[in-house]
Design goal:
Elements (H helix, E strand, L loop, with lengths): L1 E2 L4 H9 L6 E6 L8 H18 L2 E6 L11 H16 L6 E5 L26 E5 L5 H8 L3 H6 L16 H13 L15 H5 L6 H17 L2 H17 L1 H22 L3 H17 L3
Parallel strand pairs: 1-2, 2-3, 4-5
Helix pairs in contact: 1-4, 6-8, 8-9, 10-11
């Protein structure tokens, strides 16, 4: 059985293990609040169709578990254990539980579902597998580009605005960017507007390391395919993130203070010491984003 929300990661796992997966499981109450029965009905209609089209059984569950975890960050801590608890409920009929990876092995920041953590939830009755961390989000999205089921049912938006994908939030837009770069955006019918505006890309607000990793992947993909307008716009959004990032602000502040101290030393004829300190902060100066 594999977790399935209709997103890029879960579609990638479904296609990768097409011949092994017998069931898909979707949990109402994790990404869609229990009170939003309208959004749930719209989403699960798509997921049922995906299950029918791929010959899988869709297990529909609902839980208020998330309401007991309000003091714990859902993305970076709680959602992995929550998914593991779902696996425990399905052990009677399923001995393997696939959790689609959000990030690659190279992403080291804390995340609730992780390749080192997920298997540790396994028991003698169920093996919990963190699946797909070998592929970047870009490569997963490209892999879905020509799949007709994904084209009709891909769901990446958790804003619950009433639209299946709002098309304008950061997550929707970065997915559209990748599909545009792959040349398949116009084939995906769950986005009403199949266009990407570089000016909108430039103004995208990257809020955390999670979003930053996907933005960098898109930037690298844009460079790979030679889309200068998108790569420059993504670079601008990345630079804006680093200007806001507290650790970078402290680094820049400390660098400025050190530069002032060095100039003061030079003015007092302590040239050799000043030059030595200057060589120490030179790497910091080179690494600081413009």
């Amino acid at each position: 059985v594999a977790c399935f929300t209709g997103g890029v990661d879960s579609f990638f796992t479904l296609l990768k293990h097409q011949d092994e997966i017998t069931s898909l499981v979707y949990v109402h109450g994790f990404d869609i609040p229990l009170t939003r029965t309208d959004a749930y009905a719209q989403t699960v209609a798509h997921l049922r169709t995906v299950a029918d089209d791929t010959g899988k059984n869709l297990i529909e569950m609902s839980t208020n578990l998330k309401s007991f975890l309000e003091a714990v960050r859902w993305d970076s801590i709680a959602h992995g254990p929550a998914l593991a608890s779902v696996a425990m409920l399905l052990t009677r009929e399923h001995g393997t539980f696939l959790i689609p990876a959000t990030h690659t092995y190279s992403d080291s920041f804390p995340w609730g579902s992780h390749p080192l953590l997920d298997p540790l939830w396994s028991t003698e009755n169920v093996a919990i597998v963190h699946d797909g961390a070998e592929a970047t989000r870009v490569r997963k999205t490209v892999a879905l580009g020509l799949n007709p089921v994904a084209q009709q049912h891909l769901r990446v938006c958790f804003k619950n605005t009433g639209a299946y994908n709002c098309g304008v939030c950061e997550k929707c837009y970065r997915t559209k960017i990748c599909l545009r770069l792959a040349g398949t955006l116009d084939k995906f019918h769950t986005f009403e507007d199949p266009h990407v505006d570089p000016d909108v890309v430039r103004r995208m607000v990257i809020r955390d390391a999670n979003a930053l990793s996907f933005t960098v992947e898109n930037r690298d993909f844009a460079l790979e395919v030679g889309d200068v307008a998108i790569s420059e716009a993504l670079n601008a959004a990345i630079a804006a993130y680093w200007r806001r990032e507290p650790r970078m602000k402290r680094l820049i502040k400390d660098k400025k203070r050190l530069v002032k101290e060095i100039e003061s030393l030079r003015s007092r004829k302590s040239v050799r010491l000043a030059d030595a300190l200057g060589s120490l902060i030179a790497p910091v100066r080179r690494r600081t984003p413009s």
